[in-house]
Amino acid sequence: MNILCIIAAAAENNALGKDNDLLWHLPDDFKRFKSLTSGHKIIMGRKTFESFPKPLPNRTHIIITRDKNYKVENEDCIVVHALQEALNLVKDDPLSFIIGGGEIYQLGLEYANQMELTRVHGTFDADTFFPEFDKDKWQLTKEEYHPKDDRHEYDFTYLTYTKKQKE
């Protein structure tokens, strides 16, 4: 079975970011994101891609934009104009990721069968939010709590969800 995994860090109020930037700095979460996504295709919206200083190493970036003239001069980047085009590019991959932003997560929920959600314990002022998802359609399979410490300003919990099979 091919796994299409949504990966995100969202606050308790589902805040993801503001002004195309993250709201917190959690080094362990960055490390986890890197280890999970390295070597795989990552699907994202244009604004998410543009929030990176440069393309992330060892990953193929699939960037969704409505702008038909949008170009990225990098062999690790593919520009598409709809989620369906992006999904066609990963359909034969054993594992691929949807990495944001809010609108792409919302569209991707229907197609994803796994979710790696880092729940940041706090509420934040944001302009981009993780979508509400139907908890009846997803099963929490793993939970790992991390208290705040000298490197992490907030408590957070890694939550792994698997989409329940339809009856």
TrEMBL record:
Q: In which pathway does it act?
A: Cofactor biosynthesis; tetrahydrofolate biosynthesis; 5,6,7,8-tetrahydrofolate from 7,8-dihydrofolate: step 1/1
EC number from the UniProt entry: 1.5.1.3
CDD domains reported in the protein's UniProt record: DHFR
Record's catalysed reaction(s): (6S)-5,6,7,8-tetrahydrofolate + NADP(+) = 7,8-dihydrofolate + NADPH + H(+)
Class of enzymatic activity (EC top level): oxidoreductase
Q: Name one GO biological process term.
A: tetrahydrofolate biosynthetic process
Gene Ontology, cellular component aspect? cytosol
Q: Which UniProt keywords apply?
A: NADP, One-carbon metabolism, Oxidoreductase
Instruction: Report the GO molecular function annotations.
Output: dihydrofolate reductase activity; NADP+ binding
Tell me which residues make up the DHFR domain: 3-163
InterPro entries from the UniProt entry? DHFR, DHFR-like_dom_sf, DHFR_dom
The job of this chain, per UniProt, is described as: Key enzyme in folate metabolism. Catalyzes an essential reaction for de novo glycine and purine synthesis, and for DNA precursor synthesis.
PANTHER family reported in the protein's UniProt record: DIHYDROFOLATE REDUCTASE (PTHR48069)
Family, according to the entry, reads as follows: Belongs to the dihydrofolate reductase family.
Q: What is this protein called?
A: Dihydrofolate reductase
Q: What lineage does UniProt assign to this protein's organism?
A: Bacteria, Pseudomonadati, Bacteroidota, Flavobacteriia, Flavobacteriales
